[in-house]
Amino acid sequence: MNRFPKLRMSLYYCVRHACLSFVLVLLNSCSFLPEHGPGFMGLLGSHTKQSALLGQAPRATRVQLPEPAWEVTPEIEREVQLLLGRERSYLTQSLERREQYMPMLRQVFQDEGVPETLISMALIESGYNPSARSPAGAVGMWQFMRPTARMYGLTVTRHEDQRRDPILSTIAAARHLRDLYNIHQDWHLALAAYNAGSGGISRALRRAGADDYWTLVRKKKIPAQTARFVPRIIAVSLITKNMERYDLSTMAKNLDWLREGGDGSVQVARWSGDRRPSAG
Predict the structure, then answer these.
(1) CA 154 vs CA 147, 195, 206, 216, 277: distances in Å
(2) Which of 19-23, 121-125, 260-264 has the lowest mean pLDDT?
(3) Architecture (CATH level 2) of domain 5-279
(4) Helix (H, G, I), strand (E, B), or coil: what is residue 72?
(5) What is the pairing mode between strands 69-72 and 267-270?
(6) What are the extents of the domains in the chain?
(7) pLDDT in tens, 151-163
(8) Residue 26 clears pLDDT 50, i.e. is over it
């Protein structure tokens, strides 16, 4: 008779999740120096010897992952108001810094088959600053911790830290996002896993008896930082998608542009107030 059925089941799911994660990372890392085409390095100039190799490989584009459908929830509206209000200076400076990297960011995400709107994550992580370093030791534009960086082929030593290389770290980030989406099959959960770890999100889903991100937030099954991380990324994505139609001051005065559902380039669902958002 099995005296510890719950423990055995938890161990089973942990081992299965670890095996799947390992296989996905192994498939990526086997050919880390990616298939980005000639002229790629001209976007930014030379950063490292490894970066220079990117322009020598034949170009190949991966299968495109689906576009995210962002829900306009109270949490997202609150983050939009903060970014357009007291955090406007940080938002403006970050967007200005982004301009020099945007051609490279777009090409990498396109080649890796990751939706371009997720480039917004780097604004929340670092303000698009390749030299950023967190108190926890995360480094670079995409705020990689040392173990994850090495899993994706980045060199992290006393003499060289490729987490600071905007090109190589962007490739690693796009591939990490792709792997997380393949594990969780949902962009909200994939972004949460980028912040809290894939294993942590899987355990939270089991504890909550849930299969979606917003239930984890409302049941407080994930850290407060992660609960804000995803809405902040969505807020930046929605703001930047509407900057061609409105300036920041206009957007800050009236949030009707947000409730209209954006410019059509981002799928938007309207919050119904229930457990999950309804398509709109």
Answers:
(1) 10, 19, 32, 32, 38
(2) 19-23
(3) Orthogonal Bundle (1.10)
(4) strand
(5) parallel
(6) 5-279
(7) 999 999 999 999 9
(8) no
